[in-house]
């Protein structure tokens, strides 16, 4: 199983490179019947071996004009608090997001320990 790192960008050459490496790996393996390119489901039949939608099953729809998915579930959560964040401050576990400018962020009642 593999996950394309740039599936949201169909023309990105890394998709072709990753697919080529994946196919070479599958060919070298003794059991070649099951294989999948999860995030490539919207890039065409030549990309995927076993259709799977990956994160799209949970509502993460790729920003592609030709994607056929429609939301079937809506997620709602209560805002617990808001904070002002200065430019270049980090937010989230491990400082995963950095503000580009002064902004406001919200903590919602969803996730680990409702935050």
Describe this structure in words.
The chain has one helix at 13-28, and strands at 79-85, 90-91, 97-98, 103-108. The strands form two sheets. It has a two-stranded antiparallel sheet. Strands 2-3 form a two-stranded antiparallel ribbon. It has two domains: 13-58, no CATH class; 79-114, no CATH class. Helices cover 14% and strands 15% of the residues. The chain is elongated and about 55 Å long.
Name the beta content range.
Answer: 5-15%
Structural class: alpha+beta
Strand order of the largest sheet: 1-4
| Residue windows where pLDDT falls under 50 for at least 5 positions | none
Question: What does the average pLDDT come to?
Answer: 75
Through-space gap between termini: 32 Å
Count of strand segments: 4
- Domain count: 2
Can you summarize the main beta sheet? 2 strands, antiparallel
> What overall geometry do the principal axes of the alpha carbons give?
elongated
Q: Count the DSSP helices.
A: 1
Gyration radius, rounded:
19 Å
Along the chain, the helix and strand elements come as HEEEE
Helix fraction by DSSP (H/I, runs of at least 4): 10-25%
Summarize the structure.
The chain has one helix at residues 13-28, and strands spanning 79-85, 90-91, 97-98, 103-108. It is an alpha+beta fold and 115 residues long.
């Amino acid at each position: 199983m593999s996950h394309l790192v740039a599936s949201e960008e169909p023309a990105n050459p890394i998709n072709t490179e990753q697919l080529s490496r994946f196919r070479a790996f599958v060919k070298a393996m003794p059991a070649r019947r099951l294989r999948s390119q999860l995030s490539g489901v919207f890039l065409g039949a030549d990309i995927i071996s076993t259709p799977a939608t990956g994160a799209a099953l949970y509502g993460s729809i790729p920003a592609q004009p030709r994607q056929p998915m429609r939301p079937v579930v809506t997620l709602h959560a209560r805002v617990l608090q808001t904070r002002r964040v200065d430019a270049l401050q980090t937010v989230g576990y491990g400082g995963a997001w950095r503000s580009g400018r002064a902004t406001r962020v919200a903590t919602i009642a969803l996730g680990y320990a409702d935050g």
